[in-house]
Amino acid sequence: MSKSRRFSTRYYQSYHNRAATRFTPHAFNVEVEFLSKMPRILLTSEVYEDIYILTDEVNKEVSWLGTVERLGFDFMITEIFLLTQHTHNTSTHIPPGAVAELGTKLLEERADGLEVANKLRFWGHSHVNMQTSASPQDDQQMEEFEDNGCEFFIRAIVNKNGRMEFTLFLYELGLRINDAPWAVCQAPDNSRREMWQKEIEDKVFDLPSLPVQSYYLESGEYDATVLPKDIIERLHEAYRTEEEKDYA
After folding, report:
1. Burial of residue 131 (number of CB atoms within 10 Å: 0-12, 13-18, 19+)
2. What is the rounded CA–CA span in Å between residue 227 and residue 90?
3. Which CATH number applies to 41-208?
């Protein structure tokens, strides 16, 4: 046997019998794949029209809650509710007790009130003429929904330029789907505007023009959506209803 062949044989045996190297983290190339189709956000024609009317009628930020049903891997938004709120050009403030007020109204006025209240898993709001990207305040709100024990929640940000952007938060899986695909199930119903005009008149009140705290997001986009904390506290105190003051 030649010297070179003896060397290669010894080298192979040495390499083959060597101790395994301990595992160490590598430069991960993470990919997330859905084993089924991508989850979609589905809207009834009534919900689509209701969101459009609120966005069209209110020239400041306005927000609402809605009910959601799971249809396999999809999520159907079936109904929305306007909350009592104070609006500004770049923010909307929901007074303490407004969500509880909605829950009480559902329980008192609807036979299925408890079921409806338990399905409130959708929060939407208009950015008027601004982009539909989320502000830090918007993300903080979604963290509060998670802290409340919700297994999932849907957020919509819309504007008057015809854009509606959904984010699906699957808290139970630790997953967030940005700009989730959405679709309308039926043709829009044009008969609902008068109802929402009355709701807006009763529940949406203008705040005076006040300076906002401006800053740049990490993406480089300009945002001016957060009022200084002391101003928010003074506004909440000034606009509290008599019932809220008695409750406090």
Report:
1. middle
2. 9
3. 3.40.140.10
> Is the separation of the CB atoms in 76 and 44 below 8 Å?
yes
Tell me the pairing of strands 85-88 and 91-93. Answer: antiparallel
Strands (E), 95-248: 120-126, 153-158, 164-170, 175-180, 182-184, 204-206, 213-216, 222-226
Structure tokens at 43: 């809207």
Q: What is the pTM of this model?
A: 0.68
* CA angle (200 as vertex; 199, 205 as ends), nearest 5: 130
Cβ pair 134, 101 in contact under 8 A:
no
Domain ranges of the chain: 41-208
Tokens linked to 86: 């104070």
- 3-state DSSP call for residue 22? coil
Q: What's the pLDDT band for 33 if we cut at 50, 70, 90?
A: confident
Q: What's the CA gap between 69 and 71, in Å, rounded? A: 6
Encode pLDDT of 4-27 as tens digits. 555 566 666 676 777 888 888 889
Residue 215, beta-bridge partner list: 223
Q: What distance in Å separates the CA atoms of residue 102 and residue 122, rounded to the nearest whole number?
A: 14
55-102 pLDDT per residue, tens: 999 999 999 999 999 999 999 999 999 988 888 888 777 777 888 899
N residues, the chain: 248
